[in-house]
Input
Amino acid sequence: MQQTSSIFSASMLSANWTRFGEEAHAMLAAGVDWLHIDVMDNHYVPNLSFGAALCQALRKEGIKVPLDVHLMANPVDRLIFDFAKAGASLITVHPEACLHVHRTMTQIKELGCQVGIALNPGTPIDCLDHLMEMVDLILVMTVNPGFSGQQFISSLLPKIESVRQRIIASKRDIYLQVDGGLDLNNIKRVQTAGANTFVMGSTLFKSPDYAKMVAMLRTVVG
Ligand code: DX5
Ligand code: ZN
Output
């Protein structure tokens, strides 16, 4: 995956599940870069969503773009094998859900995927210590994980800035992804704080014209 200035990852949790493949193709035709697959287990988060078979189905459907898998599951370790095999490109894990986060991340890389680490609103950024050399993406959650359509927590903007400083200090090309409650009104602030990868669910899928919404968002982030 090559880094471009702004990457839009459409959260398929907000798609119409009765027309999943169609929705994925429509969102890609509208101009998003990646598809974001939110995996929820009713244990780590109070909701239940998709398994690895969904990634496999999307690949069978001819979807070639990066599948950005966000694992909100505990224990998470066994799942990474299934998702890598099913066609995930990037696998993001929450440190709280890994018994040995360094090992989990190493395994994700060994499986040929890029690796992300997700920080919940209450997770301190110190948990990135000792992991900056291996991480490909840092996900700053701007809602508590579990549901789409939640309110963006604006007090987390300084946290995004701090993570950007960490990335600059690392001298590595690491995606800074933000997920949760993004819309036309807050995306510029999120970008200014340092994000370059934007996960969006309800804003995209609730829009009557996907292409128009993606175009408007790209105009805002420039
Ligand atoms: C929340 C998920 C998000 C969410 C995004 O646990 O990780 O990806 O579905 O949806 P919106 O953009 O509606 O907040
Ligand atoms: Zn997500």
About this structure: The chain has a mean pLDDT of 97.
